[in-house]
Amino acid sequence: MKLPDGMKPALFGAVLGAIAVSIIGFNWGGWVTGSSATEMSNEDSTAAVALALTPYCVLKSKNDPKSGVVMAELADANDWKRRSIVEDAGWATPLGTENPHRALADSCQSALSNDT
After folding, report:
1. What DSSP element (H or E) covers 87?
2. pLDDT digits over 69-100, tens only?
């Protein structure tokens, strides 16, 4: 099968154009792969859960009889240690779960630091 003389440059241009559009789309056009979209969605949902549960965590801290001791420890702690203090106090453990929620602990310690 012989292609017409003008067909080879047209096919070559179409292939180069498709490659150029793909490069531009993924680098500057905001296109993402399915796995990247899933990862972004998971991060957004985790942040939304933490934001929604932050008032619960703050209220739990105010109702805790050991709140004064924990708040003093939180005030004296470095930034990298504060999340674990909130997790150890149990304030970032949502009802029905056994383990603390990391993003909730970060959000809660930030809210508690702003309240003082």
Report:
1. helix 79-89
2. 999 998 898 888 999 999 999 999 988 889 99
- Confidence band (pLDDT; 50, 70, 90) for 27? very high
- Establish if 78 belongs to a structural domain: yes
Q: What is the pTM of this model?
A: 0.68
| Residue 47 in domain | yes
The domain total for the chain is 1
Own/partner contacts of 82-89, CB < 8 Å, gap of 24 or more, are 82/109, 82/113, 83/109, 85/109, 86/57, 86/61, 86/112, 89/61, 89/64
Alpha carbon of residue 32 to chain centroid = 17
In a domain, 3, yes or no: no
Q: 41: domain range?
A: 8-115
Check residue 40 and give its pLDDT. 95
